Amino acid sequence: AVAAAMRLGAVLSALRPALPLLLGLSLGCSLSLLRASWSHGAAEERCLAPGPPAPPARGAPPEAAEERPGPGQEDFRPRIVPYYRDPNKPYKKVLRTRYIQTELGFHERLFVAVLTSKATLNTLAVAVNKTVAHHFPRLLYFTGLRSAKVPHGMVLVAHGDERPIWLMYETVNYIHQHFGSDYDWFYIMQDDTYAQAEQVKALVTHLSINQDVYLGRAEEFIGGDEQARYCHGGFGYLLSRSLLLKLQPHLDSCRNEILSVRPDEWLGRCIIDFLGITCVSQLQGQHYHTYELAKNIEPEKEEEEEFQAALAVHPVSDMTLMYRLHKQFSRIQLDRVYQEIQDLQMQIRNLTALTPAGEAGLTWPVGINAPFLPKSRFEVISWDYFTEQHLFSCPDGSPKCELSGASKADVSEIIESAVEQLNRRYQPLLRFSKRQLLNGYRRFDPTRGMEYTLDLLLEAATQKGHSHVLAKRVSLVRPLSKVEIIPMPYVTEATRVQLVLPLTVQDLDFVANFLDMFAMNTLDTHDNALLTLLFIYHPYDAQRVGQVDVFAGVKAMVGELEKRYAEVKIPWISVKTEVPSQVKLMDIVSKKHPVDTLFFLASVWTEINMEFLNRCRMNTISNWQVFFPVHFQEFNPALVYRGEQTASSNTDFLRDGHFDRHSFAEACFYNSDYMTARTKLAADILDRDEVLESMEVFDVFLHYSGLHLFRAVEPGLVQKYTLRSCNPRLSEELYHRCVLSNLEGLASRSHLAMALFEQEQANST
C-alpha cells in the first residue's frame, strides 16, 4: 500500500504542471458542445415551424430579417463567388487583368473637358494648357473644327461642326463613350475660364460618388420655371458618373426636342426634363465658389474674400490675364500653405513640451524628421565639400571638378536663401550681404532631404551706416516634398525581343555556353525572342575565310540548334573591321530590321533568362525611355575561394561579385529611337567617321536624344568571371574603362588583402 501511494504521488507530481492545460481543454470542449447543441435546436425549430416567416425583432429594420439588402440600399460587403466550370464546355484559360485596380473596378477621380473654338484655340486654350492642365489627371480639348492644327502638348478632339449645341452634344456623348466607365467625376469648362485645379480636385474628394451631382453656378432660365436652374458654362460645372450614365440614353431626344441658343442652357434643360435634377451651387456641405471678372481688372490688387475663395473665375479676355490670374492664385495658395506650416509648427512645439523628452525632443526644422542616426561606422552618411567654383566629390571619382549645371544652381540658390533668412531675422537692426563662401558641406539624408552647412563671410551694416565683416555658420535643409508618381506610357510583356550578339575571335571559347543558355531559357520556354549573330572578322582572317573560317565552329553550333528547333532561324551577319566600334556595328544591324524592333544588345558572357527579358520589355518604352542594365560580375574564383569549393547557393552570387558600372555592353532600345538619335549624330559629325570609334550606343542616346536613359543594377544578368581583352585601338576612354572593369572584377578588397597576406607569408618562409 505504501509503494502504491508513493507511485500515485509520483504520477500526480509529474502531472501537476499540466493540470491547468488539461482543465482548460476540458472546459473549452464542454462549452463548444453546449453551443453546438443550442444552434442545432434552434435550426430544427425554424425548419419545423410552418406558415409565414416570423416578424423581425423589435427595433430592427425590415430588411434585417433577410440576407439581401432592402430596396434603395447597396451592399458593399465582399462576397465569395464560388468557381464553377461547365464540364460540357472546353476549358479556356482565364485572363487576369494587368492591374488590381482594373479587376476591382476602381475608377480614376476626375476628367476635365475644355470647350474651345477656332478663335481661341491658339490663345486662350494654350494659356489653359500652360497654367492648370498639368494639375489635372486627364484633360482634353473639344472643338467643332474639322482639321484643326493642334498646338504642341495638347490633346484635341475635333467634332467637325461649330454649332454650339451640336458641340455640347458631341462632347457629352464622346465623354460617355470613351471615359464613362473610367472616371467618377467629369468637369466641363470653357477656355475663357480660369479654374483652380487643386481646389477642384479637393472638392471632388469631399463628395459622395453615389449621388447624381450637377454642381456649378446656378442660373435661372429666361422665362422658365422659377425652381429650375442650369449651371453657367462660363464658370464650369461638375457632373457625376451616375448622372452621366442616366443622361446618355436621352441625349438624342434632347438634341431633337430642346431648342436653345446657349449650350449650357440646353444641357441644363436636358438634365431637368429627363432626370429631374437641377443645378446646385452647394452640396453635401461643399460650396462651388465663383467670381465674375470685371473689365480692366487688376488681379494683383484683388483682396476680396470672394475672389480668393473662388474655384473658377470668368470671363478671361486674353492670355496675359490668364497668366496673371494663375500667378495671383498661386501666390494666394502659397501663402495659405506657409501659414498652415507655421500653425502646425506651433502646435508641434506646444505638444512637444508635454512629452517625456520635453523640448529636448524637438527636431530642427520643426515638423521635419530627425537626422538619420547610424548604428555603425558603415552607415555614416558622408558630407560633400564644395566652394562656389568647385566640387570636391565628383561623380567620376576625381578629387576635384568644376561646379556646373544643376549643382551650381543648387549652391547659388542655397546661398541666396541663407542670406535672405538672416536678413529676415535681424532686420531692421542689421542688413547682411555676402562677401564670400568660405566652406560648404552638403549630404543627402534619405529620411529628411538634402542638408547644407555653410561658412559665410558676410558684411553686416547697421541702421547708422556702420559696417563690419564677420564669418557666420548657417545650417539649411531642403526637405523631401510630396512624392509624385510620374505617368509612364503603357508597355506590355508580349513584345518580341531581338537579341544582337557581336562576336570576335577572342569570344569563341564562350559562345557554346551562351547558345546553351539561350536555348534552355528562351527556345525551350517558347519565349518571344530572336537571335542575330554578328561575326566580326579581322582583315587578315577575312582574306583566309575560304580556306580557314575562324567562326566555322559557331556556325556549326547554330546549324545544330536550327535542326533541334525546326521553327527557329538564327541569322548571322559578317563584318570586316580592325576596330569593332559598337555604333558602326549597330548601324549595320539597324538597317536590316524594322523600325519597331526592340533590340537587346548582349555580350557573349551574358546568361539570358526570361526574368531579365521581361524587364527589358517593361523598362524600354518607344519614344520615351531606353534601358542600360548594370550586370553582376562574379569575382575571380582563384582569389575569392583560393582552392576551396565554390558556393553552390543561388544567393551567394551577390556576395562573390559586384555590379560592373564601367560596362555599357548590354542595352535595350527600339530601332526607331536609335535611328532618330543616329540621324542627329550624323548631322553633327559631318562624315567624320573616326569619331564613332570613340563612342558607344550609350553616348549616342545620352547626347543626341531627348529620351530617358534608365540605368539600374540588374541581378538577373550574372556573368562568370573572365579576363576580357581590351582593344588598344579604341579610344582612350573606352580602353581605360575596359581596364578598370577587369581590375575591379578581380576580387573585393578583403579578398585581395588576404591574397597579398598569404603571398607575403609564403615569401617570408
Structural summary, described in words:
Helix 13 packs parallel to helix 15. About 6% of the residues have low confidence. This protein is 36% helix and 20% strand. 24% of the residues are buried. The protein contains 22 helices and 27 strands. The radius of gyration is 37 Å and the shape is globular. A hairpin with an 8-residue loop joins strand 7 and strand 8. The strands form eight sheets. A six-stranded mixed β-sheet has the order 3-2-1-4-9-6. Strands 22-21-20-23-26 form a five-stranded mixed β-sheet. By secondary structure, the protein is of the alpha/beta class. The protein folds into three domains: 228 residues, Spore Coat Polysaccharide Biosynthesis Protein SpsA, Chain A; 96 residues, Nuclear Transport Factor 2, Chain: A (Roll); 256 residues, Alpha-Beta Complex (Spore Coat Polysaccharide Biosynthesis Protein SpsA, Chain A). The longest helix has 34 residues.
Biggest sheet layout = 6 strands, mixed
Please tell me the total number of domains.
3
Report the top-level CATH class of the largest domain.
Alpha Beta
Lateral strand order in the biggest sheet: 3-2-1-4-9-6
Which consecutive residue ranges, at least 5 long each, have pLDDT under 50?
Answer: 37-73, 647-653
Question: What's the number of helices?
Answer: 22
Classification by helices and strands: alpha/beta
- End-to-end separation in angstroms reads 81 Å
Average the pLDDT over all residues and give the rounded result: 84
Quaternary status of these chains? single chain
* Number of E-type strands: 27
Shape field: globular
Helix percentage range: 25-40%
Radius of gyration: 37 Å
CATH topology of the largest domain: Spore Coat Polysaccharide Biosynthesis Protein SpsA, Chain A
What is the second-level CATH architecture of the largest domain? Alpha-Beta Complex
Beta-strand portion reads: 15-25%
Keywords: Glycoprotein, Golgi apparatus, Membrane, Signal-anchor, Transferase, Transmembrane, Transmembrane helix
Enzyme class: transferase
Pfam families: CHGN
Biased composition (Pro residues): 50-59
